[in-house]
Amino acid sequence: MSNASSSGRVVVITGAGRGIAPQVALDFAGEGARVVVVDMIEERAKRTVAEIEAEWAMVEANRKLVEIFEKKIQTKLAEIWGEEEKAKV
Asked: What are 13-37's pLDDT values in tens digits?
């Protein structure tokens, strides 16, 4: 894959339940693409979709944790340095 972002694009992955296709689907999803998963065997397609959903649910959960910790750090620094310094963080 290229270094260009796939954000906003729709990507169709055929045979998405086997070989390297599940990883390709995950990679495109990670770049922000809307991924259409196609496979002749429905269970394989569902497995790939579940992998994508699990991976990006974890990413979203981690992003929220980072936001919480950032707010706690800013609050603590504001307590230590005073409100004036809070704007510089």
From this structure: 999 999 999 999 999 988 888 899 9
Domain that holds residue 52: 10-84
- pLDDT tens-digit profile of 38-84? 999 999 999 999 998 888 876 676 667 777 777 877 787 777 777 65
Alpha-carbon distance of 77 to 83, in angstroms, equals 9
Does residue 68 belong to any structural domain of this protein? yes
Examine residue 3 and state whether it is found in any structural domain, yes or no.
no
Contacts of 66 (CB under 8 A, 6+ apart): none
Model pTM? 0.62
* Helix (H), strand (E) at residue 46: helix 42-81
Contact criterion met (CB below 8 Å) for 31 and 5: yes
Burial of 65 per CB tally in 10 Å (0-12, 13-18, 19+): exposed
